């Protein structure tokens, strides 16, 4: 089974997505997601100029060898652009293999380990009161786990606050919008939100929070400690992870569970945090970390240390990533939770899929492959729409981590 064609489809049904379609000489095709939010065109060029030509004529069944070819063969390793391109090829090839076998992907990975995939939704509001209402909305939709983010008085556009309460889409302008940040204000406000949430809804639901790389290690430790009475499921990206030693300091001060890794690209980014047991959940996902082939290695390493998965699942991860992640989650023994930000109806139409939501869980379908397709005619109606992620600045103008 030889690869006859490999091409990139860019579409923007409400937001930008980059999709790779690989077609074999037997007519079977597979698709993979290559979206890199705010920097989409770099992956398009990497794929079109450097990867697709290499694929033509190769045996589509040799997923591992093609993965190694793209990783080792470039000489230049790792990084978000390279690893997304590799992920797109890998996912498209797994899709082809599973279609050829006549099986849903999770069966090829080793079969079902659970019935449904517990997901968390992203609740937000411009202040505590609005966020408490938004969490209530998720609870009434059946969610068992909700990530709560609030605007903070005095901070312009804190992370996670969207326009509609169920939707959050940060990449909102052709040139990055400028938002504000003030750690002191956030540290005074965020614990009050969790106090109110627990007082209103009790302790039956899992609550999560995203620090979005904003705190220093000491501030992060302080936040984790202040949140202990509210028993969070996890505190995410509480400090930037370039300095991984920082997590030792945080760990010494708090038992609030820690999650990290949505911007990690390989097992090498994860290894020290996992082996030193400095985190509880690893958030690397299919599109960010080299596809099914590589994410499986990360999950297996994490399992040795009782660290569980918590795949990133924001809207910039296309339905192709979501569908593939759900097959992965259905199989992976050390599953923790899956992030699920809903896509708009336009996106869902361009990417027909067979996964479905019920009572706080997502369920994969039984369609052979990963169960997600692309309607190319419809996709063509939504041209690329340049948009970047925002940036954040402190009150005195200093550039900070968004
Ligand atoms: C999350 C993330 C997102 C990212 C986004 C960037 O946990 O869902 O932090 O909101 O900011 O994926 O493209
Ligand atoms: Mg996050």
Automatic annotation (TrEMBL):
* UniProt KW Lyase keyword: yes
Report the EC code(s) recorded for this entry. 4.2.1.8
Which key words are in the record? Carbohydrate metabolism, Lyase, Magnesium, Metal-binding
Question: Which cofactor(s) does the record list?
Answer: Mg(2+)
SMART domains linked to this entry: MR_MLE
Q: Which Pfam families match?
A: MR_MLE_C, MR_MLE_N
Looking at the record, the residues that make up the Mandelate racemase/muconate lactonizing enzyme C-terminal domain are 128-257
Q: Which domain of life is it from?
A: Bacteria
What SUPFAM superfamilies does the annotation carry? Enolase C-terminal domain-like, Enolase N-terminal domain-like
Q: Which PROSITE patterns match?
A: MR_MLE_1 (PS00908)
Catalyzed reaction equations: D-mannonate = 2-dehydro-3-deoxy-D-gluconate + H2O
Q: In which pathway does it act?
A: Carbohydrate metabolism; pentose and glucuronate interconversion
* NCBIfam families assigned: ManoateDhtManD, PRK15072.1
So what does this one do?
Catalyzes the dehydration of D-mannonate. Has no detectable activity with a panel of 70 other acid sugars (in vitro).
Q: Which family does it belong to?
A: Belongs to the mandelate racemase/muconate lactonizing enzyme family. GalD subfamily.
Q: What is this protein called in UniProt?
A: mannonate dehydratase
Species name? Sphingomonas immobilis
């Amino acid at each position: 089974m030889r690869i006859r064609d490999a091409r990139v489809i860019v579409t923007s049904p409400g937001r930008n997505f980059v999709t790779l379609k690989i077609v074999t000489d037997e007519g079977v095709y597979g698709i993979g997601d290559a979206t890199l939010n705010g920097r989409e065109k770099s992956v398009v060029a990497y794929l079109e100029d450097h990867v697709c030509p290499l694929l033509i004529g190769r045996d589509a069944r040799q997923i591992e060898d093609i993965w190694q070819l793209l990783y080792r063969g470039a000489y230049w390793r790792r990084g978000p652009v390279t690893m997304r391109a590799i992920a797109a090829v890998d996912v498209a090839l797994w899709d082809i293999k599973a279609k050829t076998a006549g099986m849903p992907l999770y069966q090829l990975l080793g079969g079902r380990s659970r019935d449904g995939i517990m997901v968390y939704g992203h609740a937000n509001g411009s202040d505590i009161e609005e966020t408490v209402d938004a969490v209530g909305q998720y609870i009434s939709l059946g969610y068992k786990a909700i990530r709560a983010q609030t605007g903070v008085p005095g901070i312009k556009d804190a992370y996670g606050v969207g326009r509609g309460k169920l939707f959050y889409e940060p990449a909102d302008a052709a040139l990055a919008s400028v938002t504000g940040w003030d750690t002191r204000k956030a540290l005074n406000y965020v614990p009050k939100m969790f106090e109110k949430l627990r007082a209103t809804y009790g302790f039956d639901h899992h609550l999560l929070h995203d620090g979005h790389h904003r705190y220093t290690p000491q501030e992060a430790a302080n936040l984790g400690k202040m949140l202990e009475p509210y028993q969070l499921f996890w505190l995410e990206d509480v400090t930037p992870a370039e300095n991984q030693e920082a997590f030792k300091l945080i760990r010494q001060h708090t038992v609030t569970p820690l999650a990290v890794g949505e911007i990690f690209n390989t097992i090498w980014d994860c290894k020290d945090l996992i082996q030193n047991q400095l985190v509880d959940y690893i958030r690397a996902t299919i599109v960010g970390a080299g596809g099914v082939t590589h994410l499986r290695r990360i999950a297996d390493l994490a399992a040795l240390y009782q660290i569980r998965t918590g795949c990133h699942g924001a809207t910039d991860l296309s339905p192709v990533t979501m569908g593939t992640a759900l097959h992965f989650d259905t199989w992976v023994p050390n599953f923790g939770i899956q992030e699920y930000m809903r896509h708009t109806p336009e996106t869902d139409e361009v990417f027909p899929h067979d996964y479905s939501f019920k009572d706080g869980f997502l369920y994969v379908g039984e369609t052979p492959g990963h169960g997600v397709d692309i309607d190319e005619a419809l996709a063509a109606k939504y041209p690329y729409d340049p948009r970047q992620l925002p940036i954040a600045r402190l009150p005195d103008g200093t550039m900070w981590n968004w």
